[in-house]
């Protein structure tokens, strides 16, 4: 895999490395964090990490011993993709998604390592740890206090995943191999030149910039993004906290890589997804005449973004309905109302 242009990326700041005394200390740092940070060796004692340090095959044998006999969804890229799971020249995805058993997937990866098969990216992404494995999450656990995170495992060969962001907070733990993350604050989205928001490799809009060969003529504002960028280089056992909405470009640097990540939101689970609101606004607001768009911009500010005392102060408290702070019950009623409206 080609390396990033050292003249460009060597100037990026490094993500802060911190030490944590115990689970309570980690919890406090996660709650206070507004920027990414690294904890070296946080999960160094995991059995999966220890297996991977022996060899890639030992890590695969460990995972195979715990697997359930169910198919995995795996992405298979093309030999000429340089590990980049992205779009082709016609904006179709440059990889195929198939169902396969884990022994067959691992056999294909081993054949690539041995040079008996054509090298191409093989990538299993965001698999819930409990569904296809028996006891894997319990044996490789991390105390995250009172959070109830989604624990996912990512398995693959050398790969490049375009910069994207996630709504939840994320603690990414490198279990096997090495990873490089290149990160940008949430407000840099316009300088990353995002692609389509409905036709994406994995559900989130991605940067169209090739981080290994950036085209500054086509993407001049990427220079501004680089001025805010951070780099994190992680070994097996290290963990990286990615705060909600931070953009991150992810590279698997070895022939075999495994990542375990934990996602959680500090907001109630019954709240809606902001991306759904954006999609609906594109459907109903974006293409209105300028004067009407200005009106709805003011309405969004009034009811959503500012939402000050004057918004509802004149309405009796018991009659404010969804203008009151949302509860799980009120959110359910609003969701049902929206589903009926969208179904018309």
TrEMBL record:
SMART domains, A to Z: JmjC
TM ranges: none
Domain JmjC: start-end pairs: 98-279
The protein's matches in SUPFAM superfamilies, at most eight in alphabetical order, are given as: Clavaminate synthase-like (SSF51197)
PROSITE patterns (UniProt xref):
JMJC
Identify this protein by name: Cupin
């Amino acid at each position: 895999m080609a390396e990033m242009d050292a003249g460009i990326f060597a100037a990026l700041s490094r993500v802060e490395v911190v030490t944590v005394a115990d689970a309570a200390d980690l919890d406090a740092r996660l709650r206070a964090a507004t920027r990414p940070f690294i904890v070296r060796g946080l999960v160094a004692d995991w059995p999966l990490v220890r297996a991977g340090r022996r060899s890639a095959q030992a890590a695969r044998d460990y995972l195979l011993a715990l697997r359930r006999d169910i198919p995995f969804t795996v992405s298979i890229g093309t030999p000429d993709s340089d590990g980049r799971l992205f779009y082709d020249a016609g904006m179709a995805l440059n990889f195929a998604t198939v169902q396969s058993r884990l022994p067959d997937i691992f056999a294909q990866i081993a054949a690539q390592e041995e040079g008996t098969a054509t090298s191409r990216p093989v990538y299993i992404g965001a698999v819930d740890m409990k569904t296809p494995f028996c006891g894997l999450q319990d044996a490789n656990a991390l105390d995250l206090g009172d959070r109830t995170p989604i624990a996912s495992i990512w398995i693959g060969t050398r790969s490049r995943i375009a910069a994207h962001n996630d709504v939840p907070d994320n603690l990414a733990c490198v279990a096997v191999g090495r990873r490089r993350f290149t990160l940008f604050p949430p407000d840099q989205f316009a300088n990353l030149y995002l692609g389509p928001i409905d036709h994406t490799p994995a559900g989130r809009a991605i940067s169209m910039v090739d981080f290994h060969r950036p085209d500054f003529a086509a993407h001049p504002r990427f220079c501004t993004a680089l001025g805010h960028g951070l780099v994190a280089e992680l070994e097996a056992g290290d963990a990286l906290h990615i705060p909600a909405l931070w953009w991150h470009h992810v590279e698997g640097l070895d022939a075999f890589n495994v990542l375990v990540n934990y996602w959680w939101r500090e907001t109630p689970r019954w709240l809606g997804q902001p991306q759904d609101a954006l999609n609906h606004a594109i459907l109903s607001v974006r293409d209105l005449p300028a004067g009407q768009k200005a009106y709805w911009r003011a309405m969004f500010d009034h009811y959503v973004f500012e939402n000050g005392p004057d918004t509802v102060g004149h309405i009796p408290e018991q009659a404010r309905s969804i203008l009151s702070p949302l509860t799980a019950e009120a959110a359910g009623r609003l969701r049902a109302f929206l589903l009926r409206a969208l179904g018309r």
